[in-house]
Automatic annotation (TrEMBL):
Cofactor(s) for this UniProt protein: thiamine diphosphate; Mg(2+)
The organism's place on the tree of life at top rank: Bacteria
Organism field: Fulvivirga sedimenti
Pfam annotation, one family: DXP_synthase_N
Cofactor detail note: Binds 1 thiamine pyrophosphate per subunit.
Keywords: Isoprene biosynthesis, Magnesium, Metal-binding, Thiamine biosynthesis, Thiamine pyrophosphate, Transferase
Function statement: Catalyzes the acyloin condensation reaction between C atoms 2 and 3 of pyruvate and glyceraldehyde 3-phosphate to yield 1-deoxy-D-xylulose-5-phosphate (DXP).
Family: Belongs to the transketolase family. DXPS subfamily.
InterPro entries: Dxylulose-5-P_synthase (IPR005477), THDP-binding (IPR029061), Transketo_C/PFOR_II (IPR009014), Transketolase-like_Pyr-bd (IPR005475), Transketolase_BS (IPR020826), Transketolase_C (IPR033248), Transketolase_CS (IPR049557)
Record-given protein name: 1-deoxy-D-xylulose-5-phosphate synthase
Cross-referenced Gene3D superfamilies: 3.40.50.920, 3.40.50.970
Length: 640
């Protein structure tokens, strides 16, 4: 269902239309844009608070800059809904994040205005700097490059690496630091304190006012007062350098903080900055959820991505169930780590900026001195965990599978080469769903199982998750222990049972059978249970083994399987290449068995966004797809 935009917004089909508006009309447009986002997200879901917070900035940027010639890079991209709507995607915005609809993040294939594909944080400054250096190299020194980065994303090491480089470049790079004191959860760390200090400090405000007085005068001199620019720049610089400013010390000219919700002022400021050459940073202060009272005044973490809600009452729609529902895997993790830590005082919890998403916040609340939110800093989270392990502590480092990709060298260099006993809980393993390819946890089995000193496991249900966590905290010689589990609910409403150790490298038989054996890893095994019901109706009787470990594999069980079966299906919610099925195939070859193995999982292509089950179906490993694969194999004439 297409949602009607306000009158002014209905006229904006591209930023060229926006430029026809008077500065006064921008205020009305901002209100209409905000309403349109509220109307759509309340009905269709998606990220919310962040886009509301940058409405005025978005309008001002497209008003002042010549996009898409000037290059605008959004960090993370969850705040770019306004940008999408103003750049030709208003009428398809109701398909945002839906299967076959537009992406919830900027995406190069989707629009020329989306200069850089995003989803993971802290990339914008590097990307914009690369574009700026390219423009210089290609003789387009009139081109502007703008990176919009949040205070949360600024805590990522990559952002600092980029600023370190930008400070010695002479490019037209404008970094806009959108400071709303929030990550998904409240922002953390010394940088946050520093930004709060600049924003509230009397000295800085005085300096800021002086700068804008100077710039205010300078604007009146006309569109291109280059001579005056130099003089003013010098005075600004000396004024700022007399202060200790983090960004100035990196040779980035610092401007701000300014009110990011005053669209007229933002236009004025951006116009001025456009004429100042070289790398610079504008610090704007905004409110996440601005303009929608429940989000602005309520729990900002909830309103980061609230799901569908009643826009009038602010009530978030929750499915009502008549029977008790299984918990989310993340909550099983959160409660279980506390339960374990109460008995084992060496256990520590680590999350890089996902306390709510991973449910590590349960431990952070229960035992704050033993659980750390380290900011959007996955590399640091892993090496920090390694440091804890050197001292005999037992770290449970919980990272979304997709974000763990950031820390690959740390896993190898800092953990596995040193054989340190660090536990990795990889949440959101497999298809993430509506967030799409940037967030799918597709590769972890393949990238973890090839590292020596690494155990790789995955539970089929809540009880197994708890038992694996219990096993991971028991003393062991060394080595890392990975436990991967998906986004969403498990299958057991009665999950809080006493925990027991699982012998490392052992699987279990879910179902004895004949003709075809199905080997699974993790939660996706529940699809096989469903598939077996259909297959039984067809008179088929496949065996099903929940392997629990990809590494080490349960060799005894596999010998049993390969001795009995010539037709084998493997199922995993991960990339086929190098994954669990590949491990089984390697075992077969290494041990001289011959069988036909049908490997189901994520194919070697980028799978877009949609509901998890839609994506499983697309890749033929939903229950129907699995049943079809088994039927086909059962009918085939395997001669090995
Ligand atoms: C590498 C990486 N880690 C974690 C995340 C999850 N994440 C998405 S948005 C976000 C908070 C970003 O905060 P900020 O940049 O300040 O933007 P805001 O939502 O406040 O506008 C986090 C942690 C991510 N996208 N990428
Ligand atoms: C933009 C981003 O990276 C996060 O907001 C992410 O969408 C959270 O995912 P979950 O909803 O699975 O926690
Ligand atoms: Mg923020």
């Amino acid at each position: 269902m297409l949602i009607e935009p306000g009158k002014l917004l209905a006229e904006i089909n591209s930023p060229a239309d926006l430029k026809k508006l008077s500065p006064e009309q921008l205020v009305t447009l901002s209100t209409e844009l905000r309403d349109f986002i509220i109307d759509n997200v309340s009905v269709y879901g998606g990220h919310f608070g962040a886009s509301l917070g940058v409405v005025e900035l978005t309008v001002a940027l497209h008003y002042v800059f010549n996009t898409p010639y000037d290059q605008l890079v959004w960090d993370v991209g969850h705040q770019a809904y306004g940008h999408k709507i103003l750049t030709g995607r208003r009428d398809v915005f109701h398909t945002n994040r839906l299967y076959n609809g537009i992406s919830g993040f900027p995406k190069r294939k989707e629009s020329e205005y989306d200069t850089f594909g995003v989803g993971h944080s802290s990339t914008s400054i590097s990307a914009a700097l690369g574009m700026a250096e390219a423009s210089h190299f290609l003789g387009m020194d009139d081109k502007q490059h703008i990176a919009v980065i949040g205070d949360g994303a600024m805590t990522g090491g990559l952002a600092f690496e980029a600023m370190n480089h930008a400070g010695v470049s002479n490019t037209n790079l404008l970094i806009i630091l959108n400071d709303n004191c929030m990550s998904i959860d409240p922002n953390v760390g010394a940088l946050k304190d520093y930004l709060t200090d600049i924003t509230t400090s009397h000295t800085y405000n005085k300096v800021r006012d002086e700068i804008w007085n100077v710039l205010g005068k300078f604007s009146k001199f006309g569109p291109n007062p280059r001579e005056i620019v130099g003089k003013i720049e010098n005075s600004i610089k000396s004024l700022l350098l007399s202060q200790s400013n983090l960004f100035e010390s990196l040779n980035l000219r610092y401007f701000g903080p300014v009110d990011g919700h005053d669209v007229s002022h933002m236009v004025h400021v951006l116009k001025d900055l456009k004429d100042i050459k070289g790398p610079k940073i504008l610090h704007i202060v905004t409110t996440k959820g601005k303009g929608y009272a429940p989000a602005e005044n309520g729990d900002k973490t909830t309103w980061h991505a609230p799901g569908k809600f009643d826009k009038v009452t602010g009530e978030i729609h929750k499915k009502v169930h008549e029977t008790p529902q299984p918990p989310k895997y993340q909550d099983v993790f959160g409660h279980t780590i506390v339960e374990l830590a109460e008995k084992n005082d060496k256990i520590m919890g680590i999350t890089p900026a996902m306390p709510s998403g991973s449910s590590m916040n349960i431990m952070m609340n229960a035992m704050p001195e033993r659980a750390f939110d380290v900011g959007i800093a996955e590399q640091h989270a892993v090496t920090f965990s390694a440091g804890l392990a050197t001292q005999g502590l037992i770290p449970f480092c919980n990272i979304y599978s997709t974000f763990m990709q950031r820390s690959y060298d740390q896993v190898i260099h800092d953990v596995c080469i040193q054989d340190l006993p660090v536990n990795f809980c990889l949440d959101r393993a497999g298809f993430a769903g509506a967030d799409g390819p940037t967030h799918h946890g597709a590769y972890d089995i393949a990238y973890m199982r090839c590292i020596p000193n690494m155990i790789v496991s995955s539970p089929m249900n809540e009880e197994e998750l708890r038992n694996l966590m219990f096993t991971a905290q028991l003393p062991r010689e060394g080595g890392a222990f990975t436990i991967r589990y998906p986004r969403g609910q498990g299958v057991m409403s009665d999950w809080r049972k006493p925990m027991q150790a699982i012998e490392i490298g052992t699987g279990r038989t879910v179902r004895e059978g004949s003709e075809v054996a199905i080997l699974t890893i993790g939660h996706i095994g529940n699809y096989v249970v469903e598939a077996c019901e259909y297959l039984q109706e067809d008179g088929l009787d496949p065996a099903h083994y929940d392997m629990r470990f990809v590494k080490p594999l349960d060799e005894a069980l596999l010998h049993k399987v390969f001795k009995k079966f010539r037709k084998i299906v493997t199922v995993e919610d991960g990339c086929i290449m190098g994954g669990f099925g590949s491990a089984v195939a390697e075992f077969m070859v290494d041990h001289g068995y011959q069988a036909r193995i049908e490997r189901l999982g994520i194919p070697d292509r980028i799978v877009e966004h949609g509901e998890q089950r839609e994506l499983h179906a697309e890749c033929n490993f939903d229950p129907e797809g699995i049943a079809n694969a088994v039927r086909k194999l059962a009918e085939s004439n395997v001669t090995v």
